[in-house]
């Protein structure tokens, strides 16, 4: 080359070459040569965002798609084909990513066990050698009301004197719920229909 070629990859350039002998008179022949400009893997995949953050319900079924990533590569052919992989933060194998960039749930989630994941996703092209880039992805797992309240004791036993006046304190029951927010707000009530006792619906005082 005398100078760099300013042509897009895939462009075909035609050259006419003439061969001339040194006889008298000289004789010559012409031949057309086609030169195709091949793509060089000189571009790295680029994500459309520098970071991603999303959330999903803890009950999201396995294999459900919940978020899409996108990276582009300016090369042509296989050099411009992009594939995705989760390369950090997925030790529990909770998430996967399809070839089209859609992330999916790979195994059941439980917010009570973990409510936050910080992943690294790598986009790689098919060049030889391949080029790649990474992006951070933060996933928040949203609570659902999937846990029953549990009393702190298996039984509660209280004693009162027979002549206690109305509004006397009898005892207190307590319960917990592994959910959060409104899903963990408890209300106490008496279900046996007896009118001899009353319970405070908020604090469990009988």
From TrEMBL:
It is a single-pass membrane protein. GO terms for biological process: homophilic cell adhesion via plasma membrane adhesion molecules. It is found in: Membrane. One of its GO terms (cellular component) is plasma membrane. Signal peptide: none annotated. Pfam families: Cadherin (PF00028). The keyword Nuclease does not apply. Its main location: membrane. One of its GO terms (molecular function) is calcium ion binding. Residues 1-47, 48-151, 152-206 form the Cadherin domain. PROSITE patterns: CADHERIN_1 (PS00232), CADHERIN_2 (PS50268). Keywords: Calcium, Cell adhesion, Disulfide bond, EGF-like domain, Glycoprotein, Membrane, Repeat, Signal, Transmembrane, Transmembrane helix. PANTHER family: CADHERIN-RELATED TUMOR SUPPRESSOR (PTHR24026:SF137), FAT ATYPICAL CADHERIN-RELATED (PTHR24026). This is Cadherin domain-containing protein. It comes from Homalodisca liturata.
């Amino acid at each position: 080359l005398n100078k760099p070629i300013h042509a897009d990859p895939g462009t075909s350039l035609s050259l006419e070459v003439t061969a001339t002998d040194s006889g008298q008179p000289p004789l010559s022949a012409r031949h057309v040569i086609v030169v195709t400009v091949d793509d060089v893997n000189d571009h790295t995949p680029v994500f459309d965002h520098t970071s991603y953050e999303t959330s999903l319900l803890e009950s999201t079924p396995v294999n459900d798609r919940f978020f899409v990533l996108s990276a582009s590569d300016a090369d042509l052919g296989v050099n411009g084909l992009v594939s995705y992989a989760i390369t950090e933060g997925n030790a529990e194998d909770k998430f996967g990513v399809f070839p089209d960039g859609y992330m999916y749930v790979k195994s059941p989630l439980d917010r009570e066990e973990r409510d936050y994941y910080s992943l690294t996703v790598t986009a790689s092209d098919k060049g030889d050698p391949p080029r790649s880039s990474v992006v951070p992805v933060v996933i928040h797992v949203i609570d659902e009301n999937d846990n029953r309240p549990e009393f702190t004791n298996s039984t509660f036993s209280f004693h009162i004197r027979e002549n206690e006046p109305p509004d006397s304190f009898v005892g207190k029951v307590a319960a917990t719920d592994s959910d959060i927010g409104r899903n963990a707000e408890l209300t106490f009530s008496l279900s046996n229909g007896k009118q001899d006792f009353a319970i405070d619906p908020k604090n469990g005082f009988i």
